Amino acid sequence: MVNRKELEPERSPAAAFGQRIRALRDERGWTQDELAERMKCSGTHISAVETGRRPSTPRFAATADRVFGTGDRLERQSRAVRYTALLEGFPEYVTHEARAAEIRLYEVGVIPGLLQTQEYAAALEADAVRREAITPEQADERVELVARRQAALVRSPSPLILAVLDEGCVRRPMGDIKIMTAQFERLLEFAELPNTVLQVAPFSMGARRPFSLPVIVLTLPDRSLMAYAESASRGHLERESTSVLPMLAAYHQLQAEALSQAASVAMIEQLRKGIL
After folding, report:
1. In the predicted model, what is the mean pLDDT of residues 124-132?
2. Which domain holds residue 186?
3. How many CA atoms does the CB half-sphere of 193 hold within 13 Å?
4. Of 124, 130, 136, 160, which has the fewest CB atoms closer than 10 Å, so is most exposed?
5. pTM for this structure?
6. Residues 67-126: pLDDT tens digits?
7. How far apart are CA 178 and CA 127, in angstroms?
């Protein structure tokens, strides 16, 4: 076949998914344009997915499953493709977060996903697209993941969520004034919930800050502990409770040094009003 590109499925999850799409298409003797007609997209789109140049989306995978009659196998495989923009360990972490009894988080620089408005999340990912750190499709998946994580925590009994935000999280503008105002209002609403605690770690803490990078500590229903920490380039999921205990102790120290919830709310109120 002329101009048929050789695939390298071991190169990435996207490449493996693309190879699977091509194999299913070849089994049926369809051209890319014939498959595209059945999936209501373009042949160029099919080519980009098959060669791994464009990651799959939930809609694409679900449509492919319907067209090929593969149940939900392609949709399940596509999850690995969609999470290629996430750091190692984070997709697995999210599954544990959804069932945790207690969530303790510390964030630096940006509002954490569990507290983001959809508009803030979209503005954050749009900036990553502008820097060419991720594709527009991966940005959409990240925004969708934020919504799914938040929805998973709306359950009974409600998990206890303790959030300590570095002062830079609330001072760094993201998007326009309207987006930031709505985000401040979201934080204030979060602080009023009966199962939450919100604190700001002020810049004045200096060297007394026990963490320099984001960290999350989970208490699972069986009271075991799990932690997720990340740098700019990688994430690490710690599953051994004994290894997490020092991080939990450091988190308690962080809370003791941070502003009280009342003082933190007052700071956010002033930022919302443009006083600070």
Report:
1. 90
2. 87-272
3. 19
4. 130
5. 0.71
6. 999 998 888 877 655 555 666 668 778 889 999 999 999 999 999 999 999 999 999 999
7. 17
- Return d(Cα 243, Cα 263) in angstroms, integer: 32
Count of the separate structural domains present in the chain: 2
Q: In this structure, what DSSP letter does residue 84 have?
A: G
Domain shared by 78 and 93, yes or no? no
Measure the CA–CA gap between 138 and 175, rounded to whole angstroms: 19
pLDDT at res. 91: 77
Tens digits of per-residue pLDDT, 52-78?
777 777 889 999 999 999 998 888 877
Q: Which of 84, 101, 119 is the last residue of a domain?
A: 84
Residues 125 and 80 in one domain: no
From 53, 84, 115, the end of a domain falls on 84
We report the CATH number of the domain holding residue 93 as 3.30.870
Judged on CB neighbours under 10 Å (0-12, 13-18, 19+), 126 is: middle
